[in-house]
Design goal:
6 helices; alpha+beta; Collagenase (Catalytic Domain); binds zinc ion
């Protein structure tokens, strides 16, 4: 029986287990076991690693982004399910941290896609687009085509005859409830990363970024990270499109930082900083000094401004970026890496063009 078990795992339990990692760095493990109808453990136990606690970027209302603590999934592929098993649970010592009926925890066995379509086969930057909650492949490929068309219309991709981005759209028809255990909690929409990665591995496809495209009638999703897909719903709002949310996530695959502020986001900073963030308040000292707008306003290059707005396209050093209110500067008042109803700023465009040229 090709069963995979996927248990949502409380983020506070995950954080606690990882906080108690011993000095030698041994990663924490859980006990996963099957239960019979009397609640007694049957069959063998598994000892999988505790999943990493996750924070995810979530599209909010009004074109912004929030950060949510999310429950990671514990994914295991048991060799067999013992006779009489009706439920599965995970525990840490005697503390039960997750328990579900077997039918609710079971997910489909990873398999190659039923069909696929490629947009811009010559593009060097591959985006893998996976279907979730779609049952009709023509409908899914229609949305993939709409994303391709949107990317072609946006700078700097519009400067390339083929946009530079290759979209590989992989279709699996979803069973009721979804193929990747996708759930929705307000605007947070995400599922089991382990299951997604297992399906991608079966497809043989490789990309810079994986986006799970979810057929849900509400704007939402969850940002990706190292080895983690992003999730985007197909629903737009009056002032912005779902494609812009996908393009923001694609921006991260080019190494761009978020340009908004949010004190809830704990990610440590890389050194050096991303190409669209600086700790220099003087525009002349910014990595993008050559792109700064001359004489804005009344300074040799361009002014630092604590608060926007400044006209779109004015490049300088605007305080507030990379989740931090002070001491970090972004290149323009507003950019797609800050708001999903704006285009990429000139500095982000240049960084993307440089990465595409080097790909
Ligand atoms: Zn982001
Ligand atoms: Zn930007």
């Amino acid at each position: 029986m090709g069963l995979h078990i996927s248990l949502p795992f409380g983020h506070s339990h995950a954080a606690k287990a990882h906080a108690n990692t011993p000095p030698d760095g041994t990663p924490p493990r859980m006990i996963v076991e099957f239960l019979d109808q009397d609640g007694k453990a049957v069959g063998g136990r598994m000892r999988p690693l505790v999943p990493q606690p996750l924070h995810a970027e979530v599209p909010s209302g009004d074109a912004g982004m929030d950060w949510h603590k999310t429950d990671p999934h514990l994914t295991v592929a048991p060799k067999s399910v013992p006779a009489g098993a009706v439920a599965v649970r995970a525990r840490s010592g005697d503390t039960v941290v997750a328990q579900l009926p077997l039918a609710a925890a079971a997910s489909a066995k990873p398999a190659p896609p039923v069909d696929k379509a490629t947009f811009n086969p010559a593009g060097k930057w591959t985006l893998l687009l996976l279907s979730e909650l779609f049952t009709d492949k023509a409908r899914f490929f229609g949305f993939a085509g709409a994303l391709d068309k949107y990317i072609r219309s946006q700078a700097p991709f519009s400067h390339n005859p083929d946009s530079g981005v290759r979209i590989e759209a992989l279709f699996w028809p979803s069973p009721a409830g979804g193929l990747f255990n996708t759930s929705q909690n307000g605007r947070l929409v995400y599922g089991d990363t382990g299951v997604v990665n297992a399906f991608v591995a079966k497809s043989g496809a490789k990309g810079r970024l994986t986006i799970v495209l979810v057929d849900l009638p509400r704007r939402g999703g969850a940002g990706g990270g190292q080895g983690r897909p992003a999730w985007v719903t197909i629903t737009s709002e009056p002032t912005e499109t779902w494609q812009a949310v996908a393009l923001h996530e694609l921006g991260h695959s080019f190494g761009l930082a978020d340009e908004y502020t949010n004190s809830e986001q704990p990610t440590p900073e890389p050194h050096p900083l991303e190409p669209n963030v600086t700790d220099r308040s003087d525009p002349a000292q910014a990595p993008w000094a050559a792109l700064c707008t001359p004489g804005h306003p009344g300074k040799p290059t361009c002014a630092a401004a604590t608060r926007p707005p400044a006209p779109l396209g004015v490049v300088g050093t605007f305080e507030g970026a990379r989740y931090t209110e002070t001491g970090r500067y972004r290149p323009t008042a507003e950019c797609l890496m800050q708001r999903t109803d704006r285009p990429f700023c000139p500095v982000c465009q240049a960084a993307i063009a440089k990465a595409l040229a080097a790909a």
